[in-house]
Design brief:
It is a single chain. By secondary structure, this protein is of the alpha/beta class. The protein has 8 helices and 8 strands, in the order βαβαβαβαβαβαααββ. The protein has helices at about 15-30, 40-55, 70-85, 115-140, 165-180, 200-215, 220-230, 235-250, and strands at about 10, 30-35, 55-60, 90-95, 145-150, 190-195, 255-260, 265. The protein has an 8-stranded mixed β-sheet with strand order 3-2-1-4-5-6-7-8, with helices on both faces. Strand 4, helix 4 and strand 5 (about 145-150) form a beta-alpha-beta unit. Helix 1 packs parallel to helix 2 and helix 1 crosses helix 8. The longest helix has 26 residues, at about 115-140. The model has no long low-confidence stretch (mean pLDDT about 95).
Length: about 270
């Protein structure tokens, strides 16, 4: 496949963790990749490293998805890219953020001005939803684009110490389900992955927070997180990437897939 003919993906939050694993898998199969990070330098560095490791073509772009001006700049770049590179084949909404907090805390640790619920809703639901709205039907339907959100098991069940994040991911899954119905006439498939605890930098911070707050050793805290996964183990990012590409290859709109350390399963429509 020539570089010009290779399908291209827009991947938010692609500089580390799950996003970086998805980007690596996409490049390894010959696709072209545009990845975002909050800092342009970090996005560009990740793109260079992924190109060196996996070949293909990668470009780094800045996106602070809670900021309207940043979403606007990205949307303009993507529209220009589509004119040059052809229709967008896949949009993967992976960027997100989490900070442990108490249910009744008025502010986040170290950031008393940031209300936990609002901050998590903006980062994990309103931001990605607003980005899709700004990209618009014209761009998404040109491919048509396959749209995959990286959600969380926190989108369909509760977890301690992260009520704002849980609320935001529930909102994200509800939006995905509704969007799948609304975009069915346009033949734009929409789906989501709902992983339990994945071995990422984000989880490392959560393990360290639990260890410090409870006076546990890191190994004990890590084991407790692994035990919360029904499969009894933490999930490598490469497994999430494999599930993402499997859905993108054969997308079923409205399907929400759960990764819990065992076999990948579908979340029932009633949940």
């Amino acid at each position: 496949m020539s570089a010009a003919a290779a399908p291209w993906m827009l991947l938010t939050g692609g500089s580390s963790g799950i996003g970086r694993a998805i980007g690596a898998a996409w490049l390894a199969r010959g696709g072209r990749l545009w990845l975002t990070a909050r800092e342009l330098s970090r996005a560009e560095q990740a793109a260079r490293e992924l190109e060196r490791a996996h070949g293909g073509s990668a470009r780094g772009l800045a996106l602070e998805q809670t900021d309207a001006a940043s979403r606007e700049a990205l949307a303009l770049a993507v529209a220009e890219g589509a004119r040059a590179a052809g229709p967008l084949a896949a949009l993967v909404l992976n960027a997100g953020w989490i900070e442990p907090h108490g249910v009744f805390e008025a502010g986040l640790p170290g950031h008393p001005e940031r209300a936990p619920l609002r901050a998590h809703l903006e980062a994990n639901f309103l931001g990605p939803a607003s980005l899709v709205e700004r990209l618009g039907l014209g761009l998404l339907a040109a491919g048509p684009t396959r749209l995959l959100a990286i959600a969380s098991a926190a989108g369909f069940r509760g977890f301690p110490g992260i009520a704002g994040y849980v609320a935001a991911k529930h909102a994200l899954l509800g939006w995905v389900r509704a969007l799948a119905i609304d975009l069915e006439p346009e033949a734009i498939p929409v789906g989501a992955l709902c992983p339990y605890y994945v071995e990422t930098e984000m989880l490392t911070r959560a393990i360290e927070h639990r260890s410090q707050s409870l006076g546990q050793g890191l190994a004990q805290a890590r084991a407790e997180f692994a035990a919360r996964n029904p499969g009894g183990r933490l999930i490598p990012p490469a497994e999430v990437a494999a599930a993402a590409l499997a859905w993108l290859d054969r997308p079923v709109s409205g399907r929400l897939l759960v990764l819990d350390g065992g076999p990948v399963r579908e979340l029932p429509p009633s949940c």
